[in-house]
Design brief:
Pfam families: HIT (PF01230). The protein has three helices and five strands, in the order αβββαββα. It has 137 residues and is α+β, with helices and mostly antiparallel strands. It has one domain: HIT-like (HIT family, subunit A, 2-Layer Sandwich). It binds adenosine monophosphate and zinc ion. Adenosine monophosphate binds next to loops.
């Protein structure tokens, strides 16, 4: 438990949350901002700054629960679509530095969540070089 971490406090029960799922490893609760109805956060009980700081086993455990909770959110909300996002570091929009995965039900593409990918002309030489670099790192 990290003293000044709001999600550690939620896991410990020191701050209330709208719990939707809990087991030994993870807690899932409604995000207070509710970008769409049913917006849920899944957090590991053991503190880590974000996914990039977690080992493969702990990450696999977390994502197994993300899948389970996403199915439950879908069943409860009847949302026809969903985004699952985890922000890592400030540039990527992380504001709470305890790993969390957002489950965001989508009811319409006119809601208040905007995710846009700008397309670029593919440079296949560059792609091959970059893919190789990633493979070897
Ligand atoms: P991120 O920007 O990815 O770090 O997301 C942090 C999320 O935590 C935001 O969507 C906040 O609305 C949410 N949040 C912050 N405090 C609480 C809280 N006490 N209970 C539930 N959600 C919270
Ligand atoms: Zn924490």
């Amino acid at each position: 438990m990290v003293d000044d971490c709001i999600f550690c406090k939620i896991v410990a029960g020191d701050i209330p949350s709208s719990k939707v799922y809990e087991d030994e490893e993870v807690l899932a609760f409604l995000d207070i901002s509710q970008v769409t109805p049913g917006h849920t956060l899944v957090v590991p009980k053991k503190h880590a700054r974000n996914l990039l700081e977690m080992d493969e086993t702990t990450t696999a455990q977390l994502f197994a629960r993300v899948s389970k909770v996403a199915q439950k959110v879908k069943a409860a909300t009847q949302a026809p679509a969903m985004n699952i996002i985890s922000n890592m570091e400030e540039i990527a929009g992380q504001t709470v530095f305890h790993t969390h995965v957002h489950i965001i039900p989508r009811y319409t593409d006119q809601d208040e969540l905007t995710i846009s990918f700008t397309e670029h002309e593919p440079n296949f030489e560059q792609l091959a070089r970059l893919a190789g670099k990633i493979q070897n790192s």
